[in-house]
Amino acid sequence: MNEGWKEAVRVDDDVVTQARFHAALGERDVPYAGEWAERPAHLPHWSECRDRDIPEHMRGTISDRIDMRLADAKEWDDFDGTPGSGRAALWVRLPELLEVSAAALAIVGDYVPFGISQALGHRAGGNSLDNTLRVTSRTPSEWILADIRIHAVGHGFGHGLVHLWSEHGVLLGSASQSAIVREIRDEPRVVTGGRLQRPAPKEDRA
To answer: Residue 114: which of 154, 156, 80, 63 has the closest Cα?
Structure first.
């Protein structure tokens, strides 16, 4: 059964994001099943990975409520313009959404912009234009591995895929995504008239 609806995804009493969903719901009883996606074999377990430092521009967002550990990725301050392989991975845990659900997988699947900065080797990111989630399993897993694969960046847009793996290597789903790509500048923000604004260019300052 196909359905479309608009939903506010909540964590406790706070609205985190709002999105429009189109989903194929239910199950079909057929005798066929299989899994052909390949999980990267060299990645360390989450217990062996360091916590990700949250960049300034992401503080005060949902990122404050997510545990992230880098499995195969650089920190924000380590980008030097050297392009990456197009592959990146991090372990993600949602303390308030420990059950493996479509909502939890949708949040973890929203990491193509993270992968874009890793692929470019620059402090870049952007806003999602579309995100299609395909759920294949709801196997319980406290930590989820976001296995990010960037396909291309061009003309101001980036495209990629995130495979979502359980701690024990079960493919939970995949999320394909396109995003607007823009440079991120970690400049201090000032409040003017109740609005956050960037500081004026140096030549315009008194």
So the answer is: 63
